[in-house]
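Researcher: Next sequence.
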Amino acid sequence: MADTSVRFERGSWEWVPDRAAVSFFGETDLGAVEFLITSEALIELLNPDLEAVDSETAIEIFIEFEDDIHRIARREFVSRLGGEPPILLTAADVAG
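Model: Next structure:
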């Protein structure tokens, strides 16, 4: 049986303008899995009182909280039993 864990490498991300999200990949025993974390989720990590952030700020937040984001992504991957990629991380996932 394949391990349900997912592993991440720091510094592997890109901004996805049409989704207003940062894309990053994790590796499982079965291959790569794409994750997207929304700008709203990134705001939740930094300061929930903010209304919006631009792409540069979103990327800066991602870099600052990358370890936390990977931990949240791992938790969500396991709780969703993998799921259909990309796995979308929202403000609710970050707050919960």
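Model: The CA atoms of residues 41 and 94 lie 6 Å apart. Strands lie at 7-16, 21-28, 31-38, 87-89.
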